[in-house]
Amino acid sequence: MEQAQVLTFLNNKDRDLLLQFCGYSTTEPLHSFGPVVRPHYIIHFILNGKGIFQIREKTYHLETGQGFLIEPDELTFYQSDAQEPWEYLWIGFNGKMIPEFLKQIGLSSAHPIFHCDKKKELYWLVNDMLVHSKSNFSSDLRRTGLLYEFLSILALNPLESDQQVDSEYMYINQAIEYIKNNYWDGIHIYDIAKYLCIDRSYLYLLFHKYLKQSPQDYLATFRLTKASELLSTTTLSIESISNSCGYGDPATFSKAFKRWKSMSPSKYRKQKRASGTVLSN
Q: Any idea where the HTH araC/xylS-type domain is (predicted)?
């Protein structure tokens, strides 16, 4: 079950900046919200873990230190990762000055993703908002000041141009999709770079920047994960599984699998068979 702290305010006065709600959540694997349209501006910031955010038919793969903006009346969906579900905080706000503030920060529905290395500062600001929960003038001023400070941190943190970030995410998403569709076919990194029409070194840079691993490591992990699924759920031969996952040589596959799981494919299958998870074809 999701563990969350949430604070909501009903004050809807016409002001330059107004905090509507805020909160913090530790989510379960694959916890999701949406697709839904919201009436407020909302910023989520990821404290730990991974997940996806979808808006305007785009999917962004996000992790610790990244955040995303939701603008009013935009259909969005977000979901935590199955293996590393995220913890995040959020603030919901309105106000006459919001469009100008977000423009200065560089955020919009077209370019909703940002990076921030001040995780602790953002966490304690939201924590302070949660502490000052009383419905009185003093607490209201305090929360508004904290909201200004939250936005000022995003404005001060070096942000790349939104167009560049969007373009980079496009390459990452297209590369991942290409791997999913062609991993079985013995593809190499230069095939992915050629498909994207970018230099191989630039592809490496993007993967290290956003996924903290090389495209070669991502491709190998994807193939070996698929291989482990086939070992667990079928009685296909090791050679067939090797070929099905893009390894032309079973010996190369076995060596890579042993490095990954610290055991051979046949031993892995025996363990799964002993636990009753191997199925017949």
A: 173-271
